[in-house]
Amino acid sequence: MAKTTLTISSKNYSSWSLRGWLLAKFSGLEFEEVTTAPDDASARAEILLLSSSILVPCLRHDGATIWDTLAIAEYLNEVMPDAGLLPADRIRRAHCRSICGEIHSGFTTLRASLPVNLKGHFPGFKIWSRAQADIDRVCTIWRECLAESGGPFLFGERTMADAMYAPVVTRLMTYDVKLEPTLAAYAKTIMAMPEMQEWIEAAKAEPADIEELEVEY
């Protein structure tokens, strides 16, 4: 059998790569990382939101090639069903898929205004009203999920939803967005995961910076 690989781009800047990597880690599937160079055209298109056809991250496993993050999540749920990437209950499973779809296709102003930058920290960052509307919607999603599940993750146990929203958590930390206690506790839970800590340490070790994503004052 050919080895399983996950192609990713920058760990410091790439929200989609983080999602795919966390999903693979959550599933328990063993894989080898393949990292595209920061100056690779497809990688930059993905990081800078310049392409509607995103080919990173890309999972190759047992003859299958999967490059859309939601498709990766669903595929991993099929091949690693005991990992619990989706809740066991039908109603909660539908809810999980819905909020994953929402973050997958929406929140464009949040993405553009608060780009992922794990090495950066910008206290007092000015958040414009449209980006704030996206943040408010994210907070509503988290609040409703945590109220129903009781936490510590969105659906109680860790699911694909936590992988999909993890880059949003990093954005809120980077740009010093204040959260109410329940949501701050959830953000802390995500940031404390061993997988997140591993990713962040690797991100901090990356030598290259992408000027378009560096905030200047």
Automatic annotation (TrEMBL):
Residues 4-84 form the GST N-terminal domain. Pfam families: GST_C_2, GST_N_2. SUPFAM superfamilies: GST C-terminal domain-like, Thioredoxin-like. This is Glutathione S-transferase. PANTHER family: MALEYLACETOACETATE ISOMERASE (PTHR42673). Keywords: Transferase. PROSITE patterns: GST_NTER. GO terms for molecular function: glutathione transferase activity; maleylacetoacetate isomerase activity. One of its GO terms (biological process) is L-phenylalanine catabolic process.
